[in-house]
Amino acid sequence: MGPCSRPSSTSHSPRSASSPPRSSAPSTPVDCCDIAELLEWVQRAGSWQTGFVTPDRPRRPRARPRFRAVDLEITVCVKPGFLPSDVRDRVLLRLRGDATTQGFFSVDSFTFGMPLHRLTLEAAIGSVPGVLGVLSIRIAARGFHLPRNLEPVYRVPDNQILRLANDPRTPERGSIKVYTEGGV
Fold first, then answer.
1. For residues 97 and 108, is the Cβ–Cβ distance under 8 A?
2. Hey, is 171 helix, strand or coil?
3. Measuring CA to CA, how many Å separate 23 from each of 28, 32, 37, 47, 109?
4. Under a CB-based contact definition with an 8 Å cutoff, are residues 80 and 130 in contact?
5. Are the C-beta atoms of 88 and 131 separated by less than 8 Å?
6. Apex CA 164: angle with CA 114 and CA 162, to 5°?
7. Are 61 and 38 in contact (CB under 8 A)?
8. What is the pLDDT of residues 78-87, one digit of tens each?
9. Are the C-beta atoms of residues 118 and 150 closer than 8 Å to each other?
10. H helices of the chain, where?
11. pTM for the complete prediction?
12. 36: phi then psi, degrees, rounded to nearest 5
């Protein structure tokens, strides 16, 4: 057999007008060759069989995520004319969210190894009405380190997910304390 999938023939000619009509879609490699040879610029058509192999990787047991629960202590400066308690509550809402609003620390906000950027956190806090500025941010990671000033990029290992639920029923999942200065 040559490059074409049909038996080799020395005197092959294109299909004649007397041959029975076929459907418009070729169904075999021989049909493809015949149709291609009907074109005046094709001298001889050939086809090759092609196979694709796609191996499946063996499935590894899915690793359970390891969470890094963090505790934040944030001090904000409140603009004059705003009640500090209202600003504090709005900052907490902006960071943790509620049933209708996604917060900065919502469950889907962080994934494996994703760091916490201080400027992004400060921007989220600063977008709250009544916040004049962020004075300080301290962070503690339960079981990893004591409270310290938050550096520009707080890195988390690739096998861990940052978590801050701020739920009094599950304090082991992280907490936020917001302190205010100024206002009224």
1. no
2. helix
3. 12, 12, 17, 20, 55
4. no
5. no
6. 20
7. no
8. 999 999 999 9
9. yes
10. 29-37, 84-96, 118-126
11. 0.64
12. -65, -35
Do 30 and 71 touch, CB atoms closer than 8 A?
A: no
Structural tokens at position 142: 């339960």
Alpha carbons 94 and 183: distance in angstroms, whole number:
19
Tens-digit pLDDT profile for residues 50-74: 776 666 666 666 667 799 999 999 9
Tokens of 131: 């916040």
Per the CB < 8 A criterion, the answer to whether 103 and 164 are in contact is no
Contact between 139 and 71 under an 8 Å Cβ cutoff? The reply is: yes
Using CA atoms, how far apart are residues 110 and 89, in angstroms rounded to an integer? 23
